[in-house]
Amino acid sequence: MTKKNALTVALNVLSTVTTDEANEARITLAKMIESLSKVPSDEAKAKQNELRKAKTAAARAELVAKVAPVLREELSHTLEGVTVKELFSLAQAKLPEDFTANKVQNILLREMRDELVITEAKGKANTYALKSVVE
């Protein structure tokens, strides 16, 4: 049963009661049913989606602005590169509390890829080094 259906049943039941409270409840229920009946337009949905994407992008940019310099600093100390887990261990104290090795890898691959030399070895973890340090 949907909210709208439940409210409609409650409104129908209250139609037999003739008190002031029941009348107020009927008015409130009718307004609630009306609000549930309104379907957002495609334009409104698109606008909400754009706002959500903009907020997400802004939050991501803020996070990257905090984390990327820490990762660059730790990567600048190695020529041969480090794995994500090693990098996370080195930088963990300087990263936000909720940061994990997976989040470090995500930042490396999505935001810092152009700055990195990624060495892939079959059966082993990839290693990451800064291009500026290696070259």
Structure notes:
The protein has 2 domains: 3-37; 56-134, Orthogonal Bundle (Arc Repressor Mutant, subunit A). It is 64% helix and 6% strand. It has helices at residues 3-14, 20-37, 42-75, 84-91, 101-110, 131-134; strands at 116-119, 127-130. A two-stranded antiparallel ribbon has the order 1-2. Helix 4 (84-91) packs across helix 5 (101-110). The longest helix is centred in the middle third of the chain and has 34 residues, at 42-75. The termini are far apart. 11% of the residues are buried.
What's the layout of helices and strands?
Layout lengths: L2 H12 L5 H18 L4 H34 L8 H8 L9 H10 L5 E4 L7 E4 H4 L1
Antiparallel strand pairs: 1-2
Helix pairs in contact: 1-2, 3-4, 4-5
- The end-to-end distance, rounded to whole angstroms, is 65 Å
What is the fold named in CATH at topology level of the largest domain? Arc Repressor Mutant, subunit A
Count of helices? 6
Q: What is the CATH architecture assignment of the largest domain? A: Orthogonal Bundle
| Category by helix and strand content | mainly alpha
Q: What is the overall shape? A: rod-shaped
